[in-house]
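1st attempt posting a full record on here, be nice pls
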Amino acid sequence: MTADSPSRQTTPQALPKWLEPFFLLMPAGLWLLLLLVLPTLLIFELSFVPGIRPGQVVNPSGLDNYFRILHPDYLPVLWRSLFFSVSTTFLTLVLGFPVAYWIALKIPKQWQNFVLLSFVLPLWTSSLLRSYAWITILRPTGVLNTALSLVKIPPLDILNREPAVLIGMTYSLLPYMVLILYAALEKLDRRLLEAASDLGATPSQAFWQVTVPQSLTGIAAGALLVFITSMGDFVNPELLGGASSMTVARLVYNQFLGVTQNWGFGSALSMILTLVVSIAIALLLKYGDRSAASGV
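the predicted structure (as tokens):
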């Protein structure tokens, strides 16, 4: 190259603007495709194969597995799972809202993180260990009945029954509800509470007409998270509920890893769970922003 010739520098050609989002989303998209979409499609295909076992040829042939769910032997299992999920969501909301309100509005700022950390410490331990701890507390000769006997109260027989399952599930999922409600209540506009007080509103009126509307999005998000998690809970019903507290999650486990394996029926049950969860997410997406807008 001579000194008189102009220097040429090649620069890489920029990507079209419409391609940039695809490159940004490609890693996460491939991850979801391989570990979520494809397995879900495989389960969906198996749900149409009646009585399939490991090693057999997949030959979809109808909706027999879905109609089987409506059998009198299995329909109560669905209702019991729904009852556990709705009850756990209600209990965690009733118990968690006062705690989140106290942390967000009553605790000084410098202590809030410490109190939150103390409250969520149980999440650092295994859910299996927490369930075994409740077995120790609730069994006939456990800590609860021993304490009741000291004050001359008859013992409670709740282990291997539905109340024990609700206690275990509520205890396990309560920190999640508190964290989400705290995040919503921390953003509460306290000037509206002061204005309500100046206008003569009672504390109860201010709570229902100011605090609750502003935290509806957090309530919906926390309820959704608890509902979805409790629908798939396996450990608490298995350890605390016994044979009388069969849930959909345990029934799915029996179909895939139990003695009488039926992958087709287990896949149909899994798709029903997926449908319920999808409906819950759709309701949140549809009404969550509307609730937030109406609460402002």
